[in-house]
Amino acid sequence: MFAATLLRVTRFLLVPGRGVPFGNHWSRQWARRRGFTWAPEPPGTPVMFADRVAALQSVLVSSEEPAVLVAHSAGCLTVAHWAREHAGPVVAALLVTPPLVEDAPRERLPFRSLLVVSRDDPQCSFEDGVAYATAWGGEVIDAGPVGHLDSSSGFGPWPDGEKLLARLAAE
């Protein structure tokens, strides 16, 4: 059902957080699907946002095809940094549990976004997640008590995320 609902956009760029997601992490599972590409590949060690932004820009300019960004954790901040400096064929973004970083970009994103916020994320309070969504011009998705929405929080498969992505791709 997931693939059948993705009608308008066929390019999905997965923007990882700081580390390499475990094999059962939802983003790793999505990366194995046709049309999904890491942008950049998950890092093995922390790298500067400038390097991540440059890698995302490189993948984005490799095609004029519209893209939906799917970012987790620090990947959300990579997207915000990218949007501050670049423009491109991004039509929407699914931003999942960004960590609280005081100097994170707070400018409105130039594309639609859904920001998934957890009620008990150890890296960002619900209120701070809502503040990000407000600053970025995104819609808040209250995910409930899902931790950081990663493997250690019990997320391998994430069917609700698939529904959100299908919604973004079809709009």
Automatic annotation (TrEMBL):
The keyword Hydrolase applies. InterPro entries: AB_hydrolase_fold, RBBP9/YdeN. It comes from the Bacteria. Coiled coil: none annotated. Keywords: Hydrolase. One of its GO terms (molecular function) is hydrolase activity. Gene3D superfamilies: alpha/beta hydrolase. This is Alpha/beta hydrolase. It comes from Actinoplanes couchii.
